[in-house]
Design brief:
Elements lengths: L7 E7 L4 E6 L4 E6 L4 E6 L16 E4 L4 E5 L4 E6 L4 E7 L9 E4 L4 E6 L6 E6 L4 E7 L9 E4 L4 E6 L9 E6 L4 E7 L5 E6 L4 E6 L1 H5 L6 E5 L5 E5 L8 E4 L4 E6 L15 E6 L4 E7 L8 E3 L4 E6 L3 E6 L3 E5 L2
Antiparallel strand pairs: 1-2, 2-3, 3-4, 5-6, 6-7, 7-8, 9-10, 10-11, 11-12, 13-14, 14-15, 15-16, 17-18, 18-19, 19-20, 21-22, 22-23, 23-24, 25-26, 26-27, 27-28
Length: about 325
């Protein structure tokens, strides 16, 4: 690789090709890793790379399987379309913002891409037609302290948008968005969370990665499980938290929490203890924390093998295999 990946964001696995893709800002591209042997293949370039906190990229990825495409947000407020057959950028779709395009989701029913322009004021969602690669509208979030994860639920036909804070809900909220109407249909108010990551789990529930912002605001480190229909709190799990990205593994029925901001006592004054938190989704009980490193804020996995992949700054990946062994993938 040109240099060790010191800055990265989301990762995604294409189950059809058994390939992992990582948004690697420090190498200005998308790292391609084959899961057959867990080996680095190449970096797909064409992205702005590591600049400032509001204009770096690439950031997040969405798979459009029926077109064999990967849509990736970038720091220049655009979305790059990658043809997975040639592994090259074939189109750039501008979103019209001043800051980066960040989190992304694919509404497979309506063939729409939703992109969070989190660094603009006010932050907004951009909706893009996959068919003609054109922006069809936006949805602003006045008074919101940015936008984080956006997730499409096929079962409910809505997008779930994590909003870290608003004037009405300083602890954050989850907004339900109708992608065709491009409007918020319901708001779930949160306390002590300031959510970043979202993972849809079993029984109509979802896990929220309550962020380090919550610690800074005086809350205890935690993740929260809420009901996807009512927004009611099902469980607050305090053994792990101060997280960014979270992921649900249906193969093992477990949640994984990239708790890069976790501390020894769960408070803002505690000694840093970054970890990967593991939670039993059947009981919503914490199982264990696996030590990681500062900046290890991303996680993704392969339900077919139950291997879980955590990128580590300047090191590569740590792979949890079968719930036990920890292996290093040489980059």
């Amino acid at each position: 690789m040109p240099k060790p990946p010191t800055s990265f964001d989301h990762a995604l696995i294409d189950p059809a090709s058994k390939t992992l893709f990582l948004a690697d800002r420090s190498n200005s591209g998308i790292d391609v890793i084959t899961l057959q042997g867990e080996l680095f293949v190449r970096t797909i370039g064409g992205f702005v790379g590591l600049r400032g906190p509001a204009d770096s990229g690439p950031n997040d990825l969405a798979l459009v399987p029926e077109l064999n495409q990967l849509w990736v947000t970038d720091g220049d407020s655009s979305v790059k379309v990658i043809d997975l057959a040639t592994r090259s950028v074939v189109a750039t779709v501008p979103t019209g913002g001043r800051g980066r395009a960040d989190d992304i989701a694919y509404d497979a029913r309506d063939k729409l891409i939703a992109v969070g322009n989190d660094s603009d004021d006010p932050p907004f969602l951009t909706f893009i037609s996959v068919a003609d690669r054109k922006t069809i509208g936006t949805l602003e979030f006045p008074g919101a302290g940015g936008l984080e994860a956006v997730l499409w639920s096929a079962d409910r036909g809505v997008l779930y948008q994590a909003v870290p804070s608003t004037k009405t809900n300083p602890g954050g909220e989850i907004d339900l968005v109708d992608p065709k109407a491009m409007k918020v249909t319901k708001v779930f108010a949160l306390r002590d969370c300031n959510p970043h990551g979202i993972a849809i789990g079993p029984r109509g529930q979802m896990l929220l990665g309550c962020s380090p912002d919550a610690l800074a605001n005086g809350a205890r480190a935690q993740v929260q499980v809420i009901d996807m229909e009512s927004g009611n709190l099902v469980a607050a799990i305090t053994e792990t938290g101060a997280a960014d990205i979270v992921w649900y593994n249906p193969g093992a029925n477990q949640y994984f929490v990239a708790a890069s901001g976790m501390t020894a006592d769960g408070t803002k004054t505690g000694a840093p203890t970054p970890a990967l938190g593991i939670i039993d989704a059947a009981s919503n009980r914490w199982l264990q924390n696996v030590s990681t490193f500062a900046g290890a804020h991303s996680v993704v996995g392969d339900p077919a093998t139950n291997h879980v992949y955590v990128p580590l700054p300047a090191q590569g990946f740590t792979v949890l295999g079968g719930g036990s062994a920890v292996l290093n993938v040489d980059r």
